[in-house]
């Protein structure tokens, strides 16, 4: 069954804010407005029907989530007090601190592999790349080859084998950033499992003739001693394909798995507020504190209609503020919001 987070709704005039239920029937327009049908799970008391309708102002007032639905011991009072905004921002900040430290560990070859999971546009890639660039500063100054490679997009199995070979030395780091296609290819997954094997020797082999490998001078077998970081929007714990699930489980067992725990609109927006609070969000813009705050307030007021809640969206609106300082809201509504 699908778990959904009710961002803002009501049941018999009782407010519901950021509570997770099991969905029975999707958004429907009735005479009294929109609603969804969910399992009540005893949230409103023992006398409540098993299935209830939650009233919503718009289809944007609920979202699919990976969080667990409410259970019989939960109540409106206990659920709403679980995490304050400050608690959530602190939790997310701690996760990103761990991301930075684990990236350093991968650079030092203390960690063989890490999988980083989180929604798009929250700064997953930025944090990893920042640490890699910092560690390669002297190589860059001396014009030596960098010890890391960030791979984006599609990659064939033989292309993967080539990348693994070129960055197979100890101290090298390969980052697969939103290259989720390799997870669906059995040969690619087998290569990755070999590269991340828990044994002392991680031997990779390509047991078929290849003109590409001969042309590039890549041997048919080699030992991989580097580290790998996967950055993905794919929550591997909720993949439906049994075959793919088994392969991904084998990969996860070889990696540290860091979930940045941002599954709801509220959490994504609080991540933006957290970066804004640190002073890093608009550091490349010549904004006053008032201008920066106005952008965040605009996003918060319109978060149900923005095309996405992300750091990228905040920077898009910042660009408009710089170009049209007197009329940026109109431009943002036209280009950044669902019309």
Structural notes for this entry:
- The chain has 339 residues and is of the alpha/beta class.
- The chain folds into 3 domains: 3-80, no CATH class; 86-259, Rossmann fold; 265-335, no CATH class.
- The protein has 12 helices and 14 strands.
- The protein has helices at 76-80, 85-107, 124-135, 137-141, 157-166, 186-195, 211-216, 242-252, 265-278, 289-301, 311-323, 328-335, and strands spanning 3-6, 9-11, 14-16, 19-30, 33-39, 51-56, 62-64, 113-117, 148-152, 173-177, 203-205, 221-223, 227-232, 256-259.
- A 7-stranded antiparallel beta sheet has the order 3-2-6-5-4-1-7.
- α10 (289-301) packs across α11 (311-323).
- It starts with a strand and ends with a helix.
What's a quick, concise take on this entry?
This protein has 339 residues and is an alpha/beta fold. Helix content is 38%, strand content 20%. It has helices at 76-80, 85-107, 124-135, 137-141, 157-166, 186-195, 211-216, 242-252, 265-278, 289-301, 311-323, 328-335; strands at 3-6, 9-11, 14-16, 19-30, 33-39, 51-56, 62-64, 113-117, 148-152, 173-177, 203-205, 221-223, 227-232, 256-259.
- Overall geometry comes to globular
Quickly give the structural class: alpha/beta
The CATH topology of the largest domain turns out to be Rossmann fold
Report the major sheet: 7 strands, antiparallel
Summarize the helix and strand pattern as letters.
Answer: EEEEEEEHHEHHEHEHEHEEHEHHHH
Q: Catalogue the unreliable spans.
A: none
Tell me the CATH architecture of the largest domain: 3-Layer(aba) Sandwich
Rounded to an integer, what's the Rg over CA atoms?
24 Å
Largest beta sheet: strand ordering: 3-2-6-5-4-1-7
Number of domains: 3
What number is the mean pLDDT?
88
The number of helical segments is 12
- Strand percent estimate: 15-25%
Q: First CA to last CA: what distance?
A: 31 Å
Number of DSSP-assigned strands? 14
Helix content: 25-40%
CATH class assignment of the largest domain: Alpha Beta
